[in-house]
Amino acid sequence: MPGIYAAGDCAEAFDKVSGKTIVSAIQPNAAEQARVAALNMAGQTTSLKGVTQINVLDTLGMISASFGKWDGVPGGQHVELTDEANGKLLSLQFDHEKLVGCNSIGWTEHVGVMRGLVEGEVKLGEWCEKLMADPTQLMSAYLATAQAQSAHAHIKPR
């Protein structure tokens, strides 16, 4: 409705991973919604590109993170790595050649890479199988796929 703006818990936004509108009661998403609302209130027409379900928590020193469809998709593949001795879990969810969700508990390495691969809807190609064999290779997968796709997207033919 013209002249009405909302952000955070009282607003719905398009979730890029699920393809549905959701109430995304998560601070980084609410902050982006607020930024877009403020720009529009100031007369600068802009739109929200979408949100991703994300959460990063510190519970008594145990860091956990989840991004996207952490419960997976029907027919999708998943891999889980557990390090019980150190209280760690890494779970990756795939839909064909894309990482669509992940959970990590006690595993703080490359959390930004996990988010980037999910939100960027990066086509992993052969890296999907490599991650199924060794989910700790997230950084290598990111450098080989997301960085390459980003560089290719910025090259314009003459």
How would you explain this protein's 3D organization?
There is one protein chain. The protein is of the alpha+beta class and 158 residues long. The chain is 30% helix and 28% strand. The protein is built from 4 helices and 7 strands; from the N terminus they run ββαβββββααα. The protein has helices spanning 27-41, 111-119, 127-133, 138-153; strands at residues 12-15, 20-23, 54-59, 62-68, 77-83, 88-95, 98-105. Strands 3-4-7-6-5 form a 5-stranded antiparallel β-sheet, covered by helices on one side. Strands 1-2 form a two-stranded antiparallel ribbon. A hairpin with a 2-residue loop joins strand 6 (88-95) and strand 7 (98-105). The protein is globular.
Overall pLDDT score: 87
Rg for CA atoms = 17 Å
Helix content: 25-40%
Largest pleated sheet: 5 strands, antiparallel
Counting DSSP E segments of at least 2 residues, the number of strands comes to 7
Q: What overall form do the CA principal axes indicate?
A: globular
Order of strands side by side in the largest beta sheet?
A: 3-4-7-6-5
Number of helices: 4
Fraction in beta strands: 25-35%
List low-pLDDT spans. Answer: none
N-end to C-end Cα span: 43 Å
Which structural class fits the helix and strand makeup? alpha+beta
N to C succession of SSEs: EEHEEEEEHHH
In short:
With 158 residues, the chain is α+β, with helices and mostly antiparallel strands. It has 4 helices and 7 strands.
